[in-house]
Amino acid sequence: MTLLDSWKFYDPKGPISGDRSIPGIGIPGTGSDFQRFITYLGIPVIDMKLESAPLYNYMLYHTMYEIPWLLDNFLDQNCTAMMAVGQLWLEIGRDIADSIIIPFNLHDYGLVLSDFIDRMDQQLEHIGIPKAIGTKAYRVILNNLRGALTRFQIVANVIQEITQSVNTGHESISMKQAEMLNNRMQHVERAFIAEQGIYPERAEFRHLIFTTNNIHNDYGNLLFGGILDPALQWYNASITEI
C-alpha cells in the first residue's frame, strides 16, 4: 500500500466534487500556523503531515510529555511515518524544481472555486439572505459572481494547457516566455488580495476567498469571510431580536 492509497482510504473526500482520484485536502483556517502566508500575502501554503487516524492528534499532543522518547517508543518507532512525509516533500520539491513552468494547476483551482461558491450559496440560502435582500437581487449578484468565475476558468484552462504541454516536453518556449508565465503563476493568489483587508475589523485578513469566516470554528472551511461574516452576524442578530 502506498502513501496515496492510505491517504485515500482514511480521507477519501477530495476538494473537487465528484473527483475520487484526489484525497482530502483541507483549507488552512485561522487556527493554522501557515494561514497568514495566504490570507495576508497571497502566497500558497501547504501543511503536510500524517495524522493519527481516526483522531486528528495523539493524546499527548501539546503536553509536557511530547518529547523525543515518546516519538521513538510510541508514535513512530521505526520513523516510517516521518520518512514517508519526508520522501513526499522531496518528491514535491523535485517536481517543482524540474518543471519549466510552476506546476500550479489552474484548471483544478477553477473547479475548486466553483465548489466554494456553491457552498457559500447554500449557506446564504440557509440563513435567509435571498429573502432578506430580495431573491431577484440576490440572484443577480450571484450570477455576476459566477460569470466572473467562468471568465477566470476560460483563461485558467488555456494557461493550464500551455503549462502541461511545456512541462511534458510537447511544446517549447523561450526563457523569457517561461519567466513571464511563472511570474503570472506566482501572482494568481495575490490577485485576490484586498489591500485594506476584507473589512476594517479584520484588516489582517486580506484574501477575498481563502479567509475563513469568523463566526464558526477557526479550524473549519467556510470561506469568503468578507461575505459570510456580516451575513452570519445579521442572522444571529435577527434570531436574538426574535
UniProtKB/TrEMBL annotation:
Annotated Transferrin receptor-like dimerisation domain residues: 142-229
Lineage: Eukaryota, Metazoa, Ecdysozoa, Nematoda, Chromadorea
InterPro entries registered for this protein in UniProt: Peptidase_M28B, TFR-like_dimer_dom, TFR-like_dimer_dom_sf
Pfam families: TFR_dimer
Protein's UniProt name: TFR_dimer domain-containing protein
Recorded superkingdom: Eukaryota
Gene Ontology molecular functions: carboxypeptidase activity
Organism: Onchocerca flexuosa
